[in-house]
Amino acid sequence: MKTIHKFRLEVGSQPTSLTLREGHRVVRCEYIVPDKAVYIWIEQPLNVGIPSVERQFRVVYSGQPVADSNEYIGTALDPFGPEAYHVFEIPVGEHQQEVYHAVEGGGDQFQGRELHQARVF
User: Fold this and answer.
1) Taking the model in full, what pTM does it have?
2) Closest CA to 56 of 102, 22, 114, 21
3) How far is 26 from 73, CA to CA, in rounded Å?
4) Residue 38: enclosing H or E segment and its boundaries?
5) Is the pLDDT confidence value at 107 over 60?
6) Does residue 84 lie within any of the structural domains?
7) Which of 53, 59, 65, 108 places its Cα 20 to 30 Å from the Cα of 91?
8) Is residue 6 a part of any domain in this protein?
9) What DSSP assignment string belongs to 47-97?
C-alpha cells in the first residue's frame, strides 16, 4: 500500500529536511494562499519495513541561483501576487548543515531551525 502526505517547505537559503521512505516521489507542489506557504505532496509506501531516508528541498524565488546539481521539482505560483516559487531537491551528499525540519501535514507542524552535521545517506 501507499499514501500521499503533505509537507510545508520554508522559502529561503536553508533547505527543508524531510524523512521519507525509500521509493517516494513528489507528485505536486503548490502555494497555499491562506497559509502563505509552499507545500509539496509526496507519495510514499506505507510498509514500515521499508527504510527511511532524509531528503532536503529548497524553495527559491525566480532569479535566485541554485547549484547545478540541484534537481528541479516544480513551481508554485501565488495567484494573487507576483511571486513564483521554485522547488529543488538537493542531492544526497550535498546536504547543507543548517536545515529546517518539517513533518507531515500543514500549518503549525513546522518545527523550526536546527543545526545538524552534514550526512550522506
Assistant:
1) 0.77
2) 102
3) 8
4) strand 37-45
5) no
6) yes
7) 108
8) yes
9) -TTSPEEEEEEEEEETT----TTPEEEEEEE-TTSS-EEEEEEEPTT---S
Quote the domain boundaries for residue 51: 2-115
How many domains is the chain built from?
1
Cα distance between the two ends of the chain: 25
Say if 120 falls within a structural domain: no
pLDDT of 8-59, one tens digit each? 999 988 999 999 999 999 999 999 999 999 999 999 999 999 999 999 999 9
φ, ψ for residue 109, nearest 5 deg: -75, -10
Q: Grid coordinates standing for 17?
A: 529536511
What's the rounded Cα separation, in Å, for the pair 41 and 74?
A: 11
Percent of the chain with pLDDT over 90: 72
d(CA 73, CA 19) in angstroms, rounded, equals: 17
121 falls within a domain: no
